[in-house]
Write a structure and sequence with these properties.
heterotrimer, B: about 350 residues, Rossmann fold, 7-stranded mixed β-sheet, 4-stranded antiparallel β-sheet, 11 helices, 11 strands, globular, C: about 325 residues
Chain lengths: ~300, ~350, ~325
């Protein structure tokens, strides 16, 4: 057989050493880069941040006391005596209550998604990586909860437990765990069969090490995207629960609850009564659009 | 083969002891619902000597990749045993799988999935040493060293992500990753099959050079005969989960014993127009590994098949040491009753 | 194919079982003594003892579950605490009212949503696409009960065209669809109910159509000389399975998620029954309604899956 050149020197005469002219950019850096050049998403993200900021600093920027009632100043229209957005059925300032209400609504929107991502994500990764019977068992359990329409399940759990903010958040968390679990499981299962996982196993690494270094980085993306899209759903569901009386109890301001109590008064000051819904709508749609923008930035075929 | 380098400190039996002995390896994958199984590897035995390159060749579906994974215990064999440098793998008095993986590594076929897309290339290479006990800095240092040994400038390529690299560069990273843990034997599963021809030549030369530098033993799996001829010292031919022929490289390529080997060699496209052939040397598709033919598995496509071929499993001829050239064919078996014995 | 049907149906059984377990345990996650939840507050000690025995509250949990399951399977969902009527009667009547809404909302939502999505997907990237996608996002982000309120404000308060609440001048007992005086009560609830499904369907259809269009076989079709309309027909046919799956889900949501819309319009459907049960802490009705609605959802999903396998031959092999 033909003998060949025995190369003992370092091999540097191979094909193009030249790489694309772009700077080295990691995955997350390229995500940020794409976001920075997406004005629409940035604009809506700014609105979301504004809403969050307003909710956090409500006590500082609100003009009135959210609990101060006024018998004479009930259901007044925009601009009456300094109440820029009118007053509610007990004479309380609408603007103030909207600002304070944001705190509850945002909290009930974000916290369940966060917790569900953690729990559901963990279950999904464990199930996806273990495969076989473990995976089937976990996913079957999730399927049972999938058998309920989310509104129904949230209402059932919150209703059976008697309402209140904590129960509402618990109900929403339980509603979101199955879809998060499914997203994590799908992503993990896809990764699990790829060669680099086998290569990692071939080095003798423990399963936990492989998950930590190789699986999580790849699963985090889809989970994060999905979670961000769930936030707007959570806000809608949470305000829906409050609307039915299953969220916080009066007199704590909450957008859904406000819509419910103002419902009787739509014949008097319809615009004022519609306001809490406007707040819900704006928050929800901005979160939706930001999440869409995130997905576009993160969903790159690498 | 070996160039007179000193023995590896982990060596246990000296040059005479084979690096790896595989005995009667068997792996069947059950098919859901039908009760049958894919007989991917069905009784494979062979020996790998220290410092040599054993080429394993066969068509797709013959079980080469499963065999590769069996050798590293990435897949557990249903039956059979592996003996690495005198120690039985998995046996209590032998060598544990974890310890085996410190001495044997694998280079995968380059595909988009062989490197973690979210990890910079130097971290992928450093992962092995890190897992095997080195601290992060030390592991990164090893990674940088390895990258330069395969011809990639570590400061230029280290922080890159796999999608920024060409096929040849990715494959060199794969090689660096396999060598980073300091193995004595490397199993290469179709390492150049996905590369362009020019790149293929460069990577093959790299592999040869590294083998000399690090005193390695290779098991080189490929479906491409020319590649196998270029790099191997001995060749093992597989068909449908079984060993069909084993022998030194020259013997196999100049005097093939088994009709399948003969056909494989004849079917290589040639650059010489005088050697053009009109009939295809092999007809038909390879049979289904779920339902292999009885007896000799090649008998359905063999031009010399007779009744005995369908009735009885052929056995690999008498093994007389590492330079033996044997085939599992009734034609070469004096006890088979095949009419062509003696004049094949 | 028959094997797949059998497997799919069998698969629904443990799901239904799991659903019933969840419904059963609702009583137990409720605060307070589970016995109190099924008794009206003014029950005598005798009644309490009888009920306690009948329900088996003095027995271990799994036994209680089996007793409950046995009763449920024969149609005995217990008695409503607030109305003292059998729960099964309340639920079936309410469900028929909800079905009336769904009967109109479903075709409207599916048709509009699908057409919107198909058009947007076929002209992906154009201004049509952007308009439709924008409308879909709005639809999905609106709290539907708020939309109901807004519609009521517009059409009932400001312009007095349509009634604000209720199911007709005679209620649900004699609802005559063919008379406008009755049917006009349907308009606003149906529109409100259809909104979110329209948004979701438009998005899903658009994504499915756009994705199928990009596949290689579409180019092959064009190369063969098919007209653009014929190509579009093929694309729509291929994107149908994905859309159907979502349609099935949406149907379930319409049934289960009608609670908010029905509360706004005081439409005496299952959702409204549910919210009344929550206010009154009427646990038997709560249990019965949820069980019924979720079983309907499971059945709907089963039917949709089977239909999907008819349309998409790839699924049958799976």
């Amino acid at each position: 057989m033909t003998d060949t050149i025995v190369l003992d020197e370092p091999l540097d005469t191979f094909e193009e050493q030249a790489l694309p002219a772009t700077r080295v950019r990691g995955y997350w850096q390229s995500v940020f880069y794409r976001l920075r050049h997406d004005p629409v998403t940035l604009a809506f993200a700014a609105i979301v941040l504004l809403i969050v900021w307003a909710a956090i600093f409500a006590p500082l920027i609100a003009p009135f006391d959210p609990y101060k009632e006024s018998i004479v100043g009930r259901l007044k229209p925009f601009g009456w005596r300094g109440h820029m957005l009118g007053t509610d059925e007990l004479g309380r300032d609408m603007l103030t209550r909207l600002l304070y209400g944001g705190r509850v609504s945002l909290l009930m929107g974000v916290v369940p998604v966060l917790i569900a991502s953690l729990i559901g994500g963990m279950l999904g990764v464990v199930g996806g990586f273990a495969g076989g019977r473990t995976n089937t068992a976990i996913m079957r359990m999730m399927d049972v909860f999938y058998a309920f329409p989310s509104v129904l399940l949230a209402v059932a759990i919150a209703g059976a437990m008697g309402g209140g903010m904590a129960n509402g958040m618990l109900a929403l968390t339980l509603v979101f765990i199955p879809p998060m679990c499914r997203v994590a499981e799908t992503a993990t299962t896809q990764i699990r069969s790829l060669d680099f996982i086998e290569a990692a196993r071939a080095t003798g690494a423990r399963t936990t090490t492989i998950i930590r270094y190789h699986v999580l980085g790849n699963v985090l993306g889809p989970v994060f995207i999905y979670a961000s899209s769930l936030i707007s759903v959570s806000i809608l569901l949470a305000s829906g629960l409050s609307f039915l009386g299953l969220g916080v109890r009066p007199p704590i301001p909450d957008w859904g609850l406000m819509l419910s109590t103002l419902r009787q008064s739509i014949y008097v000051v319809p615009l004022v009564c519609a306001l809490p819904g406007v707040a819900i709508f704006i928050t929800s749609i901005c979160c939706n659009l930001v999440s869409d923008g995130l997905r576009a930035a993160m969903d790159v075929r690498m | 083969m070996r160039t007179g380098l000193p023995l590896d400190p982990r060596d246990r039996g000296g040059l005479q002891q084979p690096m790896l002995i595989a005995r009667d390896l068997r792996k069947h994958f059950p098919v859901k619902g039908s009760g049958k199984s894919v007989q991917a590897v069905d009784g494979v035995s062979f020996t790998v000597g220290k410092g040599e390159t054993l080429g394993i060749v066969g068509e797709s579906g013959c079980g080469k990749s499963t065999l590769a994974r069996l050798l590293l215990h990435l897949v557990t064999p249903d039956r059979g045993e592996l003996v690495f440098d005198g120690d039985a793998v998995g046996a209590p008095e032998g060598i544990a799988v974890g310890a085996l993986r410190r001495q044997v590594q694998m280079v995968f076929q380059d595909s988009y999935s062989s490197l973690n897309p979210r990890m910079p290339v130097r971290d992928s290479v450093a992962f092995g040493p890190f897992v095997q006990g080195k601290k992060k800095d030390e592991a990164r240092h090893i990674a940088r060293d390895m990258l330069s040994r395969v011809g990639l400038d570590p400061s230029l390529f280290g922080p890159r992500y796999p999608h920024e690299l060409s096929g040849g560069q990715k494959q060199r990273v794969n090689i660096a990753r396999a060598l980073a843990t300091g193995p004595r034997m490397v199993i290469l599963d179709e390492p150049v099959s996905a590369l362009d021809k020019s790149v293929e030549a460069q990577v093959l030369n790299l592999l040869r050079a590294l083998k000399r530098q690090f005193n390695l033993t290779y098991v080189f799996i490929s479906h491409d005969l020319n590649v196998v001829q270029y790099i191997s010292d001995r060749v093992l031919v597989m068909y449908l989960g079984r060993v069909v022929e084993i022998g030194p490289i020259d013997a196999i390529f100049e005097r093939p014993l088994h009709p399948y080997t003969h056909a494989l060699l004849a079917s290589r496209p040639s650059m010489d127009p005088a050697k053009r052939i009109d009939e295809p040397p092999i007809t038909g598709d390879p049979p289904n590994p779920i339902d292999p033919p009885s007896g000799c598995r090649f008998h359905t496509r063999c031009p010399f098949a007779e009744a005995v071929c369908e009735a009885a499993d052929p056995v690999l001829g008498p093994w007389e040491g590492m330079q033996s050239h044997v085939a599992a064919c009734h034609i070469h078996d004096p006890h088979s009753g095949h009419s062509r014995f003696g004049n094949a | 194919m028959g094997k797949y049907i059998l497997r799919r149906v069998l698969y629904a059984v443990p799901i239904a079982f799991g659903v019933s377990v969840v419904c059963f345990s609702l009583v137990y996650i409720a605060p307070g003594d589970p016995l109190q939840t099924v008794m009206p507050p003014d029950a005598t000690a005798e009644t309490i003892a009888i009920v306690k025995h009948a329900y088996g509250f003095d027995k271990p949990l799994p036994v209680q579950f089996l007793i409950w399951l046995g009763r449920v399977v024969t149609g005995d969902f217990g008695m409503s605490i607030s109305t003292r009527r059998p729960v099964i009667l309340e639920v079936s009547q309410a469900l028929s009212n909800t079905a009336l809404l769904a009967m109109f909302a479903v075709p409207i939502a599916f048709f509009i949503g699908y057409v919107m999505g198909a058009v947007a997907g076929s002209y992906a990237g154009s201004w049509i696409d952007r308009v439709v996608t924008g409308a879909a996002v709005v639809g999905v982000s609106l709290p539907n009960y708020w939309l109901g309120i807004v519609l009521v404000i517009l059409f009932a308060v400001q312009y007095m065209l349509l009634p604000a609440t209720g199911m007709g001048p005679h209620g649900s007992t004699s609802f005559d669809l063919l008379q406008w005086s009755n049917a006009k009560f349907l308009v606003l609830p149906v529109i409100t109910l259809a909104m979110i499904p329209i948004g979701i369907l438009a998005r899903t259809t658009r994504a499915a159509v756009a994705e199928v269009r990009n596949q290689d076989f579409v180019q092959t079709l064009r190369a063969k000389g098919l007209t653009e309309w014929a190509v579009t027909r093929h694309v729509l046919k291929n994107s149908l399975p994905q859309v159907m799956a979502v349609m099935g889900l949406q149907f379930g949501y319409l049934l289960g998620g009608s609670i908010l819309v029905e509360t706004v319009f005081t439409w005496p459907g299952s959702g409204f029954l549910l919210s009344k049960a929550i206010i009154n802490r009427d646990v038997p009705v709560l249990q019965g309604t949820i069980l019924t609605l979720s079983l309907v959802f499971v059945t709907t999903n089963l039917i949709v899956d089977l239909l999907q396998s008819l349309v998409d031959p790839r699924i049958r092999r799976a």
